[in-house]
Write a structure and sequence with these properties.
This protein has 446 residues and is an alpha/beta fold. Strands 1, 2, 3, 4, 5, 14, 15, 16 and 17 form a 9-stranded mixed sheet that branches. A hairpin with a 7-residue loop joins β1 and β2. α2 crosses α14, α4 packs parallel to α5 and α11 crosses α12. The longest helix is centred in the C-terminal third of the chain and has 22 residues. The protein is globular, with a radius of gyration of 21 Å. The chain starts with a strand and ends with a helix.
């Protein structure tokens, strides 16, 4: 059994206990947290395989990025001034590139995405994309915990529907036996009533039930789904999804900006999570999601970055800041969300969305050792006696403060150096991939 002592740092436990130790310790045994407490109560006689001095460090649960598309780091800079939350904007900037890209272009961009998440404090993420046979090995190598959803894009093509559903089934079958134990397969309808038909959604629901997993979709970026459903079915999109049995399985709904308030109570009774991605929505000129209202109604809310052509970075601390500020701006109330609640959304909220609330999201004995360390000597933390650490995390600092990232008891980042991925090499390869992608686009005349 491998034991690690993180000693002398400020410890934010979060979770139900929600304790803060100004000078605390965390003991990790293999892949789990064994003990958390004040250094004054640390047994003096015990010997550890690894002991780390955490003075001037803050120790907290790792962050959960509940919505992204890792291969799309390839397209960073290709959608400036365009809203990817509209069909026209998405299709004519990103989809035209996806139609000419080849599978071998994907791995380096996934490595770049995983490395950037590790560097900025994310330990678990929810992905949604195709080419999952290229994505999965890189994520496994990175050491991150992940819910990987095979993204189905149909666009009304029966051949595409049959092909993608077959690939989805094969992916879920294969990932169910993945040896890492950190990866879970999800179903990824791209968007309800935008480019997946009712028939496709029904079959995706059956696959989710078959493999005991959830659906990771985009919903309510505009009123498009609700306008369609009211015109064709006489009910809102949420009511139609409920009518189809879509909420029998867990649903992660990215953006969730325009869900009618009349449907909040229904969604609060379902295994439903609204995943807000404020940077992507702001850059697209979209409204701020009604986070305060949805939380008050009992809906679980998590935070995601979306893709990094919409965002354009993976720093979840910056997303927390925007969630908090947009909530006050939207509600016209100072401090509409407490800083502690925003951090809860980025940790336990994401864990609940993924069905991992019994494993991650807080520093509690018995939970998985998914945690991060932040340097409290940099800018934004002072004055330490009066600057509340929760407020500092949400409003003052960013992911550059992260020095160490641990998942399953293994260091993925140590003293700001990656241990599982070669980020410079991935960036170099990605550059070559982008140049080849542009040549393919030119040859295709798109």
């Amino acid at each position: 059994m491998m034991t690690t002592l993180l000693n002398g740092g400020m410890v934010l436990c979060l979770g139900q206990a929600d304790r803060v130790f100004d000078r605390g310790y965390v003991v990790v045994e293999d892949d789990r947290i064994a003990a958390v407490g004040d250094v004054a109560e640390l047994p003096a006689s015990r010997v550890y395989d690894q002991e780390i001095d955490c003075r001037d460090r803050l120790i907290m649960p790792g962050l959960v990025n509940a919505h992204t598309h890792t291969p799309m780091t390839l397209f960073r800079g290709q959608a400036e001034g365009v809203s990817l939350l509209t069909m026209d904007g998405w299709y004519n900037t990103i989809r035209v590139l996806e139609l000419v890209m080849t599978p071998d272009i994907v791995p380096a961009s996934v490595a770049v995405a995983c490395a950037e998440m590790i560097r900025t404090g994310t330990t678990t993420f929810a992905d949604q994309y195709f080419y999952m046979e290229q994505v999965t090995p890189v994520v496994a190598q990175s050491g991150l915990r992940a819910a990987l959803a095979y993204g189905v894009v149909e666009l009304g093509d029966p051949a595409a529907q049959a092909r993608e559903l077959e690939r989805l089934d094969a992916f879920l079958e294969d990932i169910g036996t993945h040896p890492s134990g950190r990866l879970k397969g999800w179903v990824g309808p791209h968007a309800f009533f935008v480019d997946n038909s009712v028939e496709t959604m029904a079959r995706e629901r059956l696959l989710a039930r078959k493999y005991d997993t959830g659906l990771h979709i985009h919903i309510s970026t505009t009123s498009e789904e609700d306008d369609y459903c009211r015109a064709h079915f006489g009910m809102t999109a949420a009511r139609k999804m409920d009518d189809l049995g879509m909420f029998d399985q867990p649903v992660m709904a990215a953006h969730a900006i325009t869900i009618p308030q009349e449907d909040w109570h229904l969604l609060a009774t379902k295994p439903f999570t609204a995943v807000v991605a404020p940077s992507a929505c702001m850059r697209a000129g979209a409204d701020a999601a009604p986070v305060v209202g949805m939380r008050a109604a009992g809906i679980n809310v998590a935070i995601g970055t979306d893709n990094v052509c919409n965002n354009n970075d993976y720093d979840l601390f910056l997303e927390m800041r925007l969630v908090a500020k947009l909530a006050s701006f939207r509600e016209k109330v100072p401090g509409a969300l407490l800083a502690r609640d925003v951090i809860e959304m980025a940790t336990a909220g994401g864990a609940r969305a993924l069905g991992l609330e019994n494993e991650i999201g807080e520093l509690t004995p018995g939970k998985k050792a998914d945690l991060i360390l932040l340097d409290r000597t940099g800018i934004g933390w002072a004055p330490l006696p009066t600057n509340d650490p929760f407020t500092a995390l949400v409003y003052s600092v960013n992911g550059s403060s992260v020095t160490d990232t641990m998942v399953n008891g293994q260091w993925l980042l140590r003293d700001r150096q990656w241990t599982t991925l070669d980020y410079p090499a991935a960036v170099r390869q990605q550059g070559e991939d982008v140049r080849r992608l542009m040549r393919l686009r030119q040859q295709a005349g798109v």
